[in-house]
Specification:
alpha/beta; Rossmann fold; 5 strands; 43% helix; globular
Length: 254
């Protein structure tokens, strides 16, 4: 959730690196579902096509921090907001088919402690850092469940949807959220390398119509066992619809 100056700086770097001036940056605050809805409306009004949607967001919040919508902050930013945004843009994706949706998840999803009871009320009985990490893992499992759900619902529209683990990447996310101290950044890959899986799933012809898959190092990888529990995944989906306040009009896919 960069500020406007950050967006301007990012755009300038992209233009300089690619010599492509056709770059547009926009600000959206995922801690506000109202802002997400406004952003989606703006995109649909301004853009005729949406060929690729990459939901690449990750925050790590301590304790039970809440957003203006009353939702747990990590879960809203990492899961609820992208869940809502993909719903709101699904009609434009379908109009632009064949198109692709990618959710940047994490291998940490295998270590989740997600239940229907704690999806918006995380257990913080452990030390704050550990419990917050588990909430992060829960949100990343939700990314995989969401990707698989959209893969099924958008199949007839020729829109594929997959999730991926980008690898441990040396961005400010690691040390600003106290996951790693900044000096150890050389032990992990650079941001450019970390983006390769997203680029691959966005453009590679060799993955064809692959959908509902989880990728690590640009290769299909097994998914957490819980995703085979269709009742649980459907319950997570339904709960997510409830928490984002999805309306019948916004539910453009059945």
């Amino acid at each position: 959730m960069a500020d406007k100056q950050d967006l301007t700086n990012s755009r300038d770097k992209i233009v300089k690196a690619t010599n492509n001036c056709n770059v547009v940056t926009k600000h959206v605050d995922f801690t506000s579902l109202t802002c997400v809805r406004c952003f989606a409306k703006e995109i649909k009004e301004e853009e005729e096509r949406l060929d690729v949607l990459i939901n690449n967001v990750g925050v790590f919040c301590l304790g039970k921090e809440r957003t203006v919508d009353g939702l747990q902050a990590t879960m809203q930013v990492n899961h609820f907001a992208p869940f809502l945004l993909t719903h709101l843009l699904s009609d434009l994706l379908a109009k632009s088919a064949p198109s692709r949706v990618i959710f940047v998840s994490s291998i940490g999803a295998f270590f989740h402690r997600l239940t229907l009871a704690n999806i918006n009320n995380p257990d913080v009985s452990f030390a704050d850092g550990l419990s917050s990490l588990l909430v992060y893992y829960n949100s990343k499992l939700c990314n995989i469940i969401t990707a698989n759900g959209f893969a099924k619902k958008l199949k007839q529209c020729r829109v594929t949807c997959n999730s991926l683990h980008p690898g441990m990447t040396a961005t400010t996310f690691l040390w600003k959220n106290q996951l790693l101290a900044k000096p150890v950044g050389f032990f992990v890959q650079g941001a450019e390398m970390g983006a390769q899986s997203s680029v691959f799933l966005s453009a590679a012809k060799e993955i064809g119509d692959a959908s509902g898959k989880f990728f690590v190092d640009m290769r299909e990888h097994q998914q957490p066992r819980v995703v085979t529990d269709s009742q649980f995944c459907e319950a997570v989906w339904t709960a997510s619809e409830y928490f984002v306040g999805l309306t019948d009009e916004e539910r453009s896919i059945k």
